[in-house]
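Quick one, probably user error.
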């Protein structure tokens, strides 16, 4: 078929493009609903089964069993919170709430708070942090650091290591999160910031995520007019590099 090279041709192209975009959106919505229902159903079924076994007297309601039910409830709560965060940061009304923040302290505190997960896997976290005091949205950037750090921990095998550095360069702040974990294939790197995208469902099954962590990260960084880059090699490790422009004063 010959393509028309005039205005009508252009119009056809844009209609085709719009139709494609619309069906992508529809497909994404369906994928969204099915992945959310899947993620919620599994822990819910397990909570229900365990509670029923205790109600029916098949299981004695001891601390261990109650704890395991509680863990599933916590997992569910985390999932719902992630969804809520996604909706929040996705909305265009989202505004930056700037305050003066010591970036090195912020990173250190978040690492300490997540140390439990790293220790469980015997993962060593190494810092290299310059003293940096700048204006940014503390809550939102905290969310970026939490998400990138928790990914680095989740996708790194026992005994691995994570390197976190922060410094100023050419009017920007740069924050690196480097791990020697499971890495990602090159062809996935274009998609990981899309919502509900996970490199490999089977390997991600036990991590408790639903593929929105990096979507949230990207939208927060966009709000700050920064950028995020990723380098990764399968079975070698990944590095996420955040660049944020330095805002000296509140305008
Ligand atoms: P999830 O909740 O699945 O972790 P994210 O949006 O945070 O969702 O990440 C999307 C996907 O990118 C993950 O499912 C995982 O496959 C991949 N990924 C993210 N961070 C890393 C990392 N540090 N190492 C290897 N793979 C990663």
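Nope, works fine. Designed sequence:
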């Amino acid at each position: 078929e010959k393509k028309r090279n005039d205005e009508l041709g252009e119009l056809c192209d844009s209609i085709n493009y719009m139709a494609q975009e619309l069906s992508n959106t529809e497909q994404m919505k369906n994928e969204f609903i099915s992945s959310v229902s899947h993620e919620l159903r599994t822990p819910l079924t397990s909570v229900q089964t365990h509670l029923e076994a205790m109600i029916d007297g098949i299981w004695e309601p001891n601390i261990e069993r109650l704890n395991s039910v509680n863990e599933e409830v916590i997992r569910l709560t985390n999932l719902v919170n992630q969804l809520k965060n996604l909706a929040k940061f996705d909305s265009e009304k989202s505004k930056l709430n700037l305050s003066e923040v010591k970036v090195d302290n912020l990173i250190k505190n978040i690492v300490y708070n997540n140390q439990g997960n790293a220790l469980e896997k015997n993962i060593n976290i190494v810092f290299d942090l310059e003293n940096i005091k700048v204006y940014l949205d503390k809550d939102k950037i905290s969310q970026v650091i939490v998400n990138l750090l928790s990914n680095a921990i989740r996708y790194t095998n026992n005994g691995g290591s994570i390197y976190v550095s922060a410094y100023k360069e050419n009017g920007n702040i740069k924050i690196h999160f480097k791990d020697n974990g499971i890495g990602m294939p090159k062809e996935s790197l274009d998609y990981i910031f899309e919502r509900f995208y996970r490199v490999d469902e089977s390997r991600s099954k036990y991590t408790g995520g639903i593929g929105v962590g990096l979507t949230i990260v990207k939208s927060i960084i966009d709000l700050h007019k920064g950028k995020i880059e990723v380098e990764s090699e399968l079975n070698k490790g990944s590095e996420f590099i955040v660049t944020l422009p330095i805002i000296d004063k509140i305008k």
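The mean pLDDT is 85.
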